[in-house]
Amino acid sequence: MKKRRRGISLPTQIIIALVLGIIVGFLLYGQDDLKNYIQPFGDVFLHLIKMIVVPIVFCSLAISIAGAGDMKTVGRYGWKTLLYFEVITTFAIALGIIFANIFKPGSGIDPTKLPKGDVSKYTTNAEAAAHSTYGNHMIDTIVGIIPTNIIDAMAQGQLLPVIFFSVFFGLGIAAVGKRAEPVKLLLEGVLDVIFWMTNQIMKYAPIGVFAFMAVTVMTFGIDALIPLLKLALVVIGSMIFFIIVVLGTVAAMCKINIFHLLRILKDELLLAFSTSSSETVLPSIMDKMEKFGAPKEIVSFVVPTGYTFNLDGSALYQSIAALFIAQMYGVHLSLTEQLILLLTLMLTSKGMAAVPGTSIVVLITTLSAMGLHPEGLALIIGIDRILDMSRTVVNVVGNSLSTLVIAKWENRLDYDKGRKYYETYVK
């Protein structure tokens, strides 16, 4: 009996696609008409992923909450999760401010000599976000968590309303008891089907990665990079520091090696980096964190919530970019003003978490509020895609670690299961 030959593994295919995308993008740089033929291949992959995100969140969260069984437990998960998110996001913003003050990436740059990008679509989103029904973005967000139409919320991919409905639905299954068992079995069956679909969609990932990288390099151009190279290095360096030192310290407090976590997530980080989308790896993260020792109900609750409230990479980038623009225009911010900037970013990043183009939208709103030349954002749009890739990686690591932190806080982190999974994974 002949042995069936094993093909190239998916992670290897993604690496090959990434390299080929860079090469093709470099060769086709400046040929904007060709982007319209390459970009759709990447968009198809993102659409496929977005198609399954909401069903996965709804089914997995409803099943998990039904297993947890009571409002008290869910409430405890909720306040611990949000408290952790707020603390770690504040650390990210503060670290960005510190790095921007130390390295001053905007000093010595003449804004008139930088190529100007188009921020009109982000300005439109910022104007829409600035319209507040209750005069306060945070209140708007809290009220908006409760959907008036869950089907519409699902169709728009609004995770917070979906999470609220899923938790409520799961509590209903638990309260009804045996009569709701068929509903629970149906959801479990649907979830199995969705995960099968996920596995099939991931086979298309290399094509999506190739398209995204090719278009990025075709659009990017060395002319936009050189003047902003210091900004890129400060952002990337601060993000590496945040992962290794800040998240590494948090992981160590939970008796977890951050490098073990990074090794387990290497495929997801590569995919998230290539596509600049955390959604592409949501199903895989949930699966791996459960295998790494976090209970299913905690993973199902924390990860989707983190996609809205725990954007560490985005928060870190926003604080650096805000000070970069201030430095570029020669605006000196006092310590008090920088503390106000920190508090403003804390509020605006939470209040607009679901707005498309979150980082740029939040920055436009924040800079306008503080009188810091929001038009300066047009000058860094040229490298925003590269920075977006980096901050997406930080977001993924931060959300993955958060499930382990909450599991540890609940005294439910299974270290033996995690160790066995890691040993099996690295073999």
Automatic annotation (TrEMBL):
Keywords: Cell membrane, Membrane, Symport, Transmembrane, Transmembrane helix, Transport. PROSITE patterns: NA_DICARBOXYL_SYMP_1, NA_DICARBOXYL_SYMP_2. It is found in: Cell membrane. The keyword Transmembrane helix applies. It is a multi-pass membrane protein. One of its GO terms (biological process) is dicarboxylic acid transport. One of its GO terms (cellular component) is plasma membrane. One of its GO terms (molecular function) is symporter activity. The chain crosses the membrane at residues 7-28, 48-69, 81-103, 159-177, 204-226, 232-254, 320-347, 359-381. The keyword Electron transport does not apply. It comes from Macrococcus bovicus. InterPro entries: Na-dicarboxylate_symporter (IPR001991), Na-dicarboxylate_symporter_CS (IPR018107), Na:dicarbo_symporter_sf (IPR036458). This is Cation:dicarboxylase symporter family transporter.
